[in-house]
Predict the 3D structure of the following.
Amino acid sequence: MTPLEFDQHHLWHPYTNVTKPGPTFRVSEAEGAWITLDDGTRLIDGMSSWWCMLHGHRNPRITKAIHDQLDKLPHVMFGGLTHDPAIELGRKLLEVAPPSMQRIFYCDSGSVAVEVGMKMAVQYQHANGQPQRSKFVTIKSGYHGDTWKAMSVCDPVTGMHHLFQGAVSIQYFIDKPSVKINDAWNDDEAANGLGELRQTLEANDDIAAFILEPIVQGTGGMYFYHPEYLNGARAICDAHGVLLIFDEIATGFGRTGKLFGTDHTEIEPDILCLGKALTGGHISFACTITNDRVALGIGNGEPGIFMHGPTFMANPLACAAAKASLEILSDGDWQTQTQRIERQMSEELAPAKTFNGVADVRVLGGIAVIEVDHTVSADQAHNLAKETGVYLRPFGKNIYTMPPFVCSPDELSQISAALLRLAQEL
Ligand code: PMP
């Protein structure tokens, strides 16, 4: 068996059918915006490897931090023990996170960060004398991960809830915010979607928290909505004793042109989930941060302890990588980089607006989307990659890029050209 045949017979890839494995490239190395395949072909990683490789692959500051840490302490349990990488990363996170976010829980992946956040909400309500508050409300077209509770708040249709009927928890779904990010805000609650939130919270006293991705819904449709919705949602949640959870696993660390999606708003959530780009994409890592109200509420209640504690919690290699990534962000280049991506891609993708079958073209910070009026095939896009020199993996109706922030203007132009070609040919 060749290596690729072994892969096809024995290794499961994301969302694939073992009987019909999709086309797969064998990557031998990567640097900056580029991945190199085993046959020597070089492709720009237009996906930032599923949105996490912010500063490019093999960023020297991040790899050095990991190497240095590897020589000292690759891992140690976090039960009863602590270490400088966890503490130093914690300090950096508090410098950049919304000020009320004070209590950090380190974990392994985005889905687990969401599980932890949802568990915090339920434990808080329990400790607060509201044990019946164990369900969640969310907006349609959301995506929060593939573990059970996270999946229960993913869009019920694209999240395939029918497939898991009886196994996945049933939650409350309301329409996604109707006002788009650049449209004029409409104060009428019946029109802007807040009315439905208010009615749902008024009618049901079993809701622990409202969970959503602020500003940008990622996997559920690449939809950019108005920050005023979140300001309004905060007030409605407060009036009903319901917590607000922001899943910033995709929007965190500059992707929307501000450091966090929250920074587009005037409010702060009770619980914030971060992942993906936390380590600049170099190692799996995530965290859930909450305010004193929730943390102390849990701590002062029954049983007091927060019931979660993964083996690899606060892994020192991941903490060192994350600290290095935050230091790179502190230098501030991400702002000019995301402004450049936004400006250049807006110009270069504008011609797609007149293409047959294109429904919308939108760009925000480091996210550029051509939405078409039909479902596109990721495999077909894959097969064009060697011709365009850009690796893109569209889903649903969205042909999109979230490029590494370090892409040069020429690299960005190459990505734009690839997006335009996919929009014409798929
Ligand atoms: N939340 C959001 C908003 C995401 O985009 C993702 C991943 N695409 C997740 C949660 C799950 O993260 P992970 O794949 O690391 O479990």
In short: The pocket of 4'-deoxy-4'-aminopyridoxal-5'-phosphate is lined by residues 109-111, 114, 143-145, 213, 218-219, 247, 249-250, 275 (CB under 6 Å).
